[in-house]
Every structure is written in structure tokens, then in C-alpha cells.
Amino acid sequence: MHQSTGEETGMESGTDDTNLPYLVKDPEVFAQNLARVIEEAGKAMAAYSEPREKGEIQSDLADTIAEIIKTLSRVGEYWLSDPQRTFEAQMRLWSGFMELWGASMRRMLGEASSPTIEPDPRDKRFQDPEWQKNQFFDFLKQAYLITSQWAETMVADAADLDEHTRHKADFYVKQIANALSPTNFILTNPELLRETLDSNGENLVRGMHMLAEDIKAGGGDLRLRQSDPTKFKVGENLATTPGKVIFQNDICQVLQYTPTTDEVLKRPLLIVPPWINKFYILDLNADKSFIRWAVGEGHTVFVISWVNPDQRLARKSFEHYMLEGVLEALKVVEQATGEKQVNAVGYCVGGTLLAVTLAYLAAKKDKRIASATFFTTQIDFTHAGDLKVFVDEEQIEAVERRMAERGYLEGRRMANAFNLLRSNDLIWPYVVNNYLKGREPFPFDLLYWNSDATRMPAANHSFYLRNCYLENNLSQKRMVVGGVTLDLSKSKVPIFNLAAREDHIAPAKSVFLGCTSFGGPVEYVMAGSGHIAGVVNPPSRNKYQYWTGGKPTGSFESWVGKAKETPGSWWPYWQQWVSGLAGEKVKARKPGGGKLKPIEDAPGSYVRMRD
After folding, report:
1. CATH number of the domain encompassing residue 277
2. Does 107 share its domain with 203?
3. Which end of the chain is more exposed for a tag (fewer CB within 10 A), N or C?
4. What pLDDT digit, counting tens, does each position of 34-78 carry?
5. pLDDT confidence of residue 554
6. From which residue to which does the signal peptide run (predicted)?
């Protein structure tokens, strides 16, 4: 590959051939390794095709491709329907390339030349020095950036698109651009090329072997390893806060944690986690555990641990999760403590279910939930972010057809959707690291949890997609659960509503808008970072920050502009809020309270069920 100077290529006088970059070190070994790569690739292909040939997997790839083509065709129709627009679109792209070509020629002649385009400072893909020093790779990088930026502009400027189609087109264009990045291919990534030639292709042998393993582990679909799965085990170095399972039914187990203080707040704390993921995100390890911290702050902590459902639970709906989950847990808390009221916490879709429960209890004039805290929870789905790309009538019907075959949605499908929202962070770096560099990923508890996906019952997931994302019924007072038309404004309990500034799943603006649905006082707090790190931010780490700004009224932008920023964790601020509602203390309680016999040690068996 051509480089502009002898110094850059290493071609100085007397330089040994073994020190030249981008040259095969041992052609014979390299050829042998290429043969091994082909052999391992064959195993990967067999792992992919065998379950499909046996009918064990029904591929929906054609439906996905058809949806992408249909959406992007709408963009193409706009630009090709008018010759003048077509010409302008072509000239916009070519002018960028001509400017790049001119700058590259000046650099080749030794003249000073500024880049035509540069990556976003947050873009981690082009950090290798060769992307700047080597003229070939620098040209390749800039050509890619110009093209991808042009494609995104074509979507943004297509005037005839409705909002949903534009949103989908923008999302698909970004996913295609991310996939086609030169950083994802050996011959166009200087770091990968060096590593392949330096190791005589050993990296590719290891990578193809891991690829075959991961496709086999996924039952014919790629189960992308984001962490070393051998380094973690739930109950041993994850979810280790001491406690007991004191109740279980088909849908959930209820855990009560062992107190670590002599006295506890009289009012217990019930946590409703999402069932899309597992509850131990709030109990990763002793340092990061919100549950352990809350126990240490004097709370009697109860947590719902949802089952990983199979086809037998296909008809379990949102209503069942409320009646047999949250409301049953309230009975368990009362049996174990004698208390008729709780402070409740809901996380993500668990928070949405908690809000549904609040509205249901308000209609029944039931006051067992005295306060509610929401972690990155959407009530109003108007600004629900990129997940809305996957939600329209046609796509929901396709999901419902797939779920009807098994009675549930496979956990990996939701996990893949979440990963796509940040594919440059959660997909492509691991593809490059695992399968092209041939390196095992670093053991990271958060990413292990992220890959520990759960299934979702067909009835439950269909209800959620339609009533929340598609029709936004909860905030519009149209949702019906348990024969009750829900109206959250009738719930007067105090609310602590936590958003995260960089949340791509429950955007902070969406959480802010949801505050208007409640009938009681609302404390809106915005944490730094995203959907997980914004929540799991223990005070001991002194990371990030949070914003407070009074009542969540007016526009979101106006609230943010006036909000007060405080460094560090929001946890102590929440503790001050929740203990201020009812600060009376009693003697610490043992799990079960002598009335419910413990079934097993925390974290229980339900959370250990793998997808």
C-alpha cells in the first residue's frame, strides 16, 4: 500500500524486511492459517445452517430486508422523482469527493492540507495513528465519512416523508453506515491489517473458532459475546446481597434481604425490576449494588424476580404481571412485615408496570403504595426514541406471528434491538475484537448482565408494544387493565422520577413529559450518563452528576437550562427524599418475619434460568 514518505513506510536505508509494515512475515505459515480459517468458517456456516435445515429456526431476515428496502425506497423516490433534485444530490456528494481529492493531492505533494472532514470527537473507531498518518487510510476514512454524512442528509432533506418513515430511514441508514465502516474490515483497517500480517493470520483462526462457538451457543443465531462468560456466576460474584426467597408463583419470586442495621425504616421498600432484563442489574456486586446500599441505609428491601417464561406462560399478560406480580408482592410484604404501605421502585418497563398499578389502585381506592420511584421509566411514549423504529402495525403483526409459533419472544431479539440502538458501542467493536482480532472480550459484569437475556410471554409483549409504543394509551387515559380504564391523574402519591441525560431507551425528554400524567407531587431528577450507568452510580465512585430543578413543568429544554447540577451520585438525594416521607424506624426484620418460611437463598432460582 502506498504511503507518502519513506519514513512512514519504514523503507529507510538499511531497514530489515522483517520490520516493514503490511508485509506477510512467513508466507508458508500464513497460507496454512488461511486454510484453518476456511475450515473454522465452514464450522460456523454449519452451525448457522443446520438448525434452519431442520426447521428449528424460522428466519425472518427476508422480512427485515424487505422493510429496510421499502423504507429507503421512499427516500430514493423523493430524490429521483425530480431531475433537478437528482442532480443536486449527485453534486452534493461529488463536491465532497472533489474537495477530498484536492486536499489529498496537496498532501501528496508535501503541501499543508487540512482534513476535508473529521470524525466526531466521541467516535472511537479511528483512534489508531495510521488513520491520520497514512495517506491511504486517511483518504479512506474521509471518503467514508463524506458518504455516510451525505446519506444521512438525503434522509433529513427528503421533504415528502412522514415522521415515522423518516425516523426509520435515518435509523437504517446509520446502521448500514456503521456496518460498512472501514474499521470493520481487515484490508481497510490498519490495526487489523497489521495484526493479521504480524501473526500470520493466527488472529483470524482464533476469531473464526469463536464465531463458530458463538453461533452454536445461539442455537443457529449469533450470540455475540461482549464479556468473558466464564468469569461470572449469578449468586457467586453477581447478585450476592444476602437474603431469602420468601414467595414464588408461576410469574415471579419475591426476595427479602437480610438487614445490616439494628433499626430500619418502618415503611418497607418494594422494587419492581424490568422483565426484559434480570433484576441483578441492581445487585451486580457489593460495590455497585443499589440493593445492598439501600439495605445499608436502613430499608427493608423486597425485590420481584421475574421468571424466564416459556410457552406455558404464553397467555400471561400485563394484567397477570400486575395481579400475580406487583399486587401479590404487596401481600407478601404485608405478611412479612405487618406493614400495609410500601415505598415502591420501578425500573424501565418495571416502572411502566408500577405506574399501571398506581392507576389501578387509585381506581380501587387502595393506598398500599405510599410513594413511587421510577428509574428511567416511560409513561408517555411520544418521545420514545429509536425503539419506535421497530413499532408500527406491520412490524408488530410480524412480531406477533413469530411469538405465536413459540408462545414467547426470544430474549436475544430484544437484546439485539437494544444493541442496535448503540451499534458502534455494543456490536461492531466486539465483532472486530472477537472475530477479526481473535481476542476474548474483557470480563465486564455489566456486559455479562446485558447478554443474560430473558424471554417475554406473547400476550404480555404484544400488549406492551401496542398500548405503550404504538398507541400511547397510558398517558392518554385509554389503557384498560383488569377491567379498569386507567387514569394516572387520580393517583396522588409522591413521585420521584429519575431520568438519564444520555438514555437511548427511555430518553430524558420522554421521562420528563411523563411527569404530567401523575396527580400528585413529582420530583424530577436527571442523572448523568445513560439507561444503566445513570442509575447504577454508587456514591463511593463519585462519578457523573445529577440535575434538580423543581417541578417538571414547561418545556424540557427550559427545565434543563435552569436546573442545578450536583457532582456525584443521586442516591443520597433520593434517600433524603424517601426517608423524608416517613422517617419512623423499627427494629430490623428478618426475611419472612417468622410468618413466611424461606424457600431458598437469594438470588433464587428464577434469575438463574438462561434464555
Report:
1. 3.40.50.1820
2. yes
3. N
4. 999 999 999 999 999 999 888 887 777 778 888 999 999 999 999
5. 93
6. none
